[in-house]
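Re: iron/sulfur cluster structure - here you go.
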Amino acid sequence: MDVCTVSSESEVDKPRQADLDRCVHCGLCLNACPTYRELGVEMDSPRGRIYQMVQVSSGAPITDSYREHIDLCLACRGCESACPSGVQYGRLIEAARAEIEANTERGWLSKTVRNFVFQKLLPSPALLTAAGAGLWIYQASGLQKLVRATGLANMLGPLGSREALAPAAEIPFFFREIGKTFPAEGGRRYRVAFMAGCIANVSFARLNEATVRVLRKNGCEVVVPAGQTCCGALHVHAGIRGEARKLARRNIDAVIDGDAVIDGKFDAIITNAAGCGSTLKEYDELLEHDPAYADRAKQFKSLMKDITEFLASIELNRNMGTVDATVTYQDSCHLSHGQKIRRQPRQLLEAVPGLKFREMPLSDICCGSAGIYNVLHTELSMKILESKMGNVNLTKAEIIATANPGCMIQMEVGVRKWGNGERVMHVVEILDEAYRKGDTK
Ligand code: SF4
Ligand code: SF4
């Protein structure tokens, strides 16, 4: 790739000087950084990456080396939690990637693939359904088992290692529920909008159904607003903020002004995906310069809640059966570091009768999933995951709970490679199981 100098186009989307100036280069974040822990390279630490951002902001060219070090960051924001100076690292890395994107000439193939995935596939229920159907046939026909059992996957090189990361396609897909309203059980206490995600409609259809059931059990009328689309989190992580803004506007139109509010306003907008939640809560920043949307983006953000955050804030329905299992919890980075939600998922797990909770060491260090990081940087992602599974195994837990579909896919891979047959479940799925058992008591 060519060395580029920064163009004036990226003036809005580049690290803000005030954010860069907050870093005093103390290094207290280094141990919280999974890439620094694995690689031991200063330029792959938060302090090193900020140093490089400062150089670029002072006029240094964007080089391949800079691209690589910024690219290798998981954007997990573990450094943000560790930093005593309040450096907003998440904002810095997203802006640095947007600046790189605006100043990078891609080849035809790379441009075509990126445009297809980010502009066509992720926002399109029709294309996601088609891709999901293909994945389902591959898995249900036994072809996937054959590829894995014969070692063919290993012979496919990098493609084979990525095959292992493919999530299960779950039919029927959740797309069929978009536009529907589900009544509250036992009297309506709240009216909530549920954001179903993009890929999650295909690969986490059962989790989405469980989320609706658990909300209904807690007195929520659940609306799945028509017209909603991908939240734009993957776009933001890849530095494609223009596309993310388009998706944000569509979601705001669907939830704040769409047909869904004809029967009344929402008490909350809910997501079960920590990665999506972080971006959905940043719509105000994404659209701060858009006069037509800035106020509505603030309104959207003020209602946006992670499912665990919402359930922990209301009087929880305790009519649950026993879940007799030992459970450990993997903090999703975008929940713990991005949204500062750590206590709530644990509080919900501890409310389940019979469940024995065991904390793992370093539960808030990234598992290596990080959006599509595991696909793009599979080798480093697997090193990080192996360390994570070492900590999981210390707990001897039967269930690994988490609160983000991306982490669930990664932990499933971890269990297959280094685990002891643990079940990987979303916190909501454990609650759902407890409520089902409560119903049959
Ligand atoms: S990001 Fe924070 S903790 Fe890390 S070097 Fe800078 S000031 Fe220190
Ligand atoms: S976001 Fe995560 S991987 Fe990136 S510098 Fe911070 S701690 Fe390291």
